[in-house]
C-alpha cells in the first residue's frame, strides 16, 4: 500500500526529526505538513524541501490537510494535547473520515490505550531490546576477561543460540562493529536516558496488568545509574557496557 500524496507530522524532537526526514526522503511525490511547538525546528526542517514542506499553525491544520498524520511527542500529557486540545488538537479538525493517525510516542500505557495498542507492542519490544543489550554487554565483558578476542567472541555469539541484533549490528564493545555508534564514542543511536524511560514505562505497564518480570527492575537500575553518570548521559544506550566495566 503506497502512502498518500499528503502526509502530516507533529513533533520534531530528538526521535521525531530523523523519522520525519526518512519519511520525507522516501516519499518524494508527497506534500508534507508539519507542526511543532518550536518554530525554529519547523523553519529548519522546512528548508530541507521548501517546495514540499508546509508549516501548519497547529495540529488541527495538519489533520485537516494531510491524509496520514504521524505524531511523536515526549509524554502522555503532550499526546493528549496534540489530539484533544479544543480548537488546536487533531480531533478538532473536520472531515476526519478515511484519515490515518499513527502515534509513535513512547508514553504511559493508560494514555496509549485511549488511542490504541501500538505502544503496548513498542514497550514490549523496547523492554526486550534493553534487556538483550545488557546481557550482551555482560557476556562480552565476561568472555573478554576470560581471554577471548572481542570480535571472535561476537562472531561466536552470532553463530550460536545467543545470536541477536545488538551483538550483530550495535555490539556494545567499541571496535567490534566499526560503523556503529558504539565505535564512535557512543555518539548517536538511542540515548541511554531514553532507554531508561522506556524500561521504566515497560515495567510500570507490566505491574498494571500483573505480568511478572524477573529482569525488569535490575535493567531499569542499570540504565538509571548509567544515565545519571555525566560521562555517559546523552550517549547511545549501549554505553551501559562501559558503566559495567567501570563498576
From TrEMBL:
Residue ranges constituting the 3-hydroxyisobutyrate dehydrogenase-like NAD-binding domain according to the UniProt record: 116-237
Pfam families linked to this entry: NAD_binding_11, NAD_binding_2
Limits of the 6-phosphogluconate dehydrogenase NADP-binding domain: 7-114
Superkingdom assignment: Eukaryota
Protein name: 3-hydroxyisobutyrate dehydrogenase
Organism, as annotated: Mycena chlorophos
Lineage: Eukaryota, Fungi, Dikarya, Basidiomycota, Agaricomycotina
Amino acid at each position: 500500500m503506497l502512502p498518500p500524496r499528503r502526509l502530516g507530522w507533529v513533533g520534531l524532537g530528538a526521535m521525531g526529526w530523523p523519522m520525519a526526514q526518512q519519511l520525507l526522503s522516501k516519499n518524494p511525490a508527497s506534500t508534507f505538513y508539519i507542526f511543532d511547538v518550536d518554530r525554529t525546528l519547523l523553519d529548519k526542517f522546512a528548508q530541507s524541501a521548501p517546495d514540499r514542506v508546509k508549516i501548519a499553525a497547529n495540529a488541527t491544520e495538519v489533520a485537516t490537510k494531510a491524509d496520514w498524520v504521524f505524531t511523536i511527542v515526549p509524554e502522555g500529557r503532550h499526546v493528549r494535547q496534540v489530539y484533544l486540545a479544543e480548537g488546536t488538537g487533531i480531533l478538532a479538525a473536520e472531515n476526519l473520515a478515511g484519515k490515518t493517525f499513527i502515534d509513535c510516542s513512547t508514553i504511559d500505557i493508560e494514555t496509549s490505550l485511549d488511542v490504541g495498542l501500538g505502544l503496548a507492542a513498542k514497550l514490549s519490544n523496547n523492554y526486550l531490546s534493553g534487556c538483550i543489550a545488557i546481557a550482551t554487554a555482560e557476556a562480552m565483558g565476561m568472555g573478554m576477561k576470560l581471554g577471548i578476542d572481542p570480535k571472535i567472541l561476537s562472531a561466536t555469539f552470532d553463530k550460536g543460540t545467543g545470536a541477536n541484533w545488538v551483538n550483530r549490528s550495535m555490539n556494545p564493545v567499541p571496535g567490534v562493529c566499526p560503523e556503529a555508534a558504539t565505535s564512535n564514542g557512543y555518539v548517536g543511536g538511542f540515548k541511554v536516558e531514553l532507554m531508561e524511560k522506556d524500561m521504566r514505562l515497560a515495567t510500570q505497564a507490566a505491574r498494571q496488568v500483573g505480568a511478572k518480570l524477573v529482569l525488569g527492575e535490575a535493567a531499569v537500575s542499570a540504565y538509571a545509574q548509567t544515565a545519571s553518570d555525566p560521562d555517559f548521559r546523552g550517549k547511545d544506550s549501549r554505553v551501559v557496557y562501559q558503566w559495567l566495566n567501570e563498576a
